[in-house]
Design a protein that fits this description.
With 209 residues, the chain is of the alpha/beta class. It has eight helices and nine strands. Helices cover 38% and strands 21% of the residues. The strands form two sheets. Strands 4-2-6-1-7-8-9 form a seven-stranded parallel beta sheet, with helices on both faces. It has a two-stranded parallel sheet with strand order 3-5. Strand 7, helix 6 and strand 8 form a beta-alpha-beta unit. The radius of gyration is 16 Å and the shape is globular. It starts with a strand and ends in an 8-residue tail after the last helix. The structure holds adenosine-5'-diphosphate (ADP) and magnesium ion.
């Protein structure tokens, strides 16, 4: 599988919005949300924001109704997430298009009794985009996430900071974390497909270099 895995420092940081921007910037890509917990439908939101076609999204995956961590959501649904069966198709089907795969929560979110979201990233063998907040606390959360990814020798292609720009936090993440690139996505009010399209077309939207 070719493409990127979009993870974040937390849930609700902007992974879905950044994934939609990547779908706009790289329209030949295919979006996939392998694990979705709770009532949100990130795939529908990416389609709405990016206006990509049904052919550009992959619908297969774990869909668990409770808005909790995947390991718990699965257990509450009397099931268990098996990362190998979830990703099996990626090995057999020879996709040529790049993938934009969105995680759930952050890298150390448990998916079953012994595996974490970072194991899914490793299995897929994708480079990683880290989505982070811009506000106080983000330096620690982002550096911890970068350290966890580096410990597994996973390649980080970009950090995208979402929200009102904070130059000091951005400089600190660049200095201490040394990710390839730190991007800044403003807080759109309102968040519309047009506003996102404009950002995605700008040099900052070129997250994959
Ligand atoms: N750049 C942005 N401008 C405006 N709203 C945003 C932006 N990024 C995220 N949001 C909003 O913040 C919330 C969380 O974003 P989302 O992308 O769903 O986070 P995650 O996928 O990390 O859980 C959503 O309501 C989303 O619409
Ligand atoms: Mg999301």
């Amino acid at each position: 599988m070719r493409g990127v895995f979009v993870t974040g420092t937390d849930t609700g940081v902007g992974k879905t919005v950044v994934s939609a921007a990547l779908m706009i910037r790289y329209p030949e890509s295919r979006y996939w949300k392998p694990i979705q917990t709770g009532p949100d439908d990130d795939t529908a939101e990416v389609q709405r924001l990016s206006r990509c076609t049904r052919e550009n999204v992959h619908l297969r995956g774990e869909r668990l109704p409770d808005p909790v961590s995947p390991h718990l959501a699965a257990s509450l649904a009397n099931t268990r997430i098996n990362l190998r069966s979830l990703t099996e198709f990626a090995e057999t089907e020879r996709w040529v298009d790049p993938w934009i795969v969105e995680g759930a929560g952050g890298v150390l979110v448990p998916v079953n009794e012994s595996e974490l979201m970072i194991d899914l990233i490793e299995l897929l063998g994708l480079a990683v985009v880290v989505v982070a907040r811009t506000t106080l606390g983000t330096i620690n959360h982002t550096l911890l996430t970068l350290e966890a990814l580096r410990a597994r020798r996973l390649q980080v292609v970009a950090v995208v900071m979402v929200g009102a720009s904070n130059a000091d936090n951005r400089a600190a993440i660049q200095h201490y974390g040394q990710p390839h690139l730190v991007h800044q996505m403003p807080w759109f009010d309102p968040l519309t497909p047009e506003a996102l399209r404009e950002w995605a077309a700008s040099p900052l939207g070129d997250c994959l270099g």
